[in-house]
């Protein structure tokens, strides 16, 4: 054997022993197989988040846009004596 092979064997021997011990003494992992409905619940949460973000943006944008239009209309109609009333 070469020196590098001996070094790697000695360097990794403790890790190999530990892995062999764990493989021999640990019970097999039981995986969660019954995850019915999890994807549906995640979909509902994502949909709810998107709806809340959309309504928040619409509320914020619509109020600021309406205020800007109202200010523009009042600035244009300022020289006339008519009062601007929104329906």
What topology does this entry show?
Layout: H1 3-25, H2 38-77
Descriptive report:
- 72% of the residues lie in helices and 0% in strands.
- The radius of gyration is 35 Å and the shape is elongated.
- The chain has helices at 3-25, 38-77.
- It is mostly helical.
- The protein has one domain (1-77).
Keywords:
87 residues, mainly alpha, 2 helices, 72% helix, 0% strand, elongated
What's the total number of strands? Answer: 0
Percentage of helical residues? over 70%
Q: What string gives the helices and strands in order?
A: HH
Please describe the biggest sheet, giving its number of strands, its sense, and whether it closes into a barrel.
none
N→C terminal distance: 92 Å
Shape: elongated
Short recap of the structure:
This protein has 87 residues and is mainly alpha-helical.
């Amino acid at each position: 054997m070469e020196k590098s092979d001996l070094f790697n064997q000695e360097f990794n021997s403790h890790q190999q022993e530990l892995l062999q011990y764990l493989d021999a003494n640990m019970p097999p992992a039981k995986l969660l197989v019954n995850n019915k409905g999890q994807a549906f619940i995640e979909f509902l949460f994502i949909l709810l988040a998107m709806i809340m973000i959309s309504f928040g943006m619409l509320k914020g944008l619509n109020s600021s846009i309406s205020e800007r239009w109202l200010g523009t209309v009042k600035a244009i109609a300022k020289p006339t004596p008519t009062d601007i009333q929104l329906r």
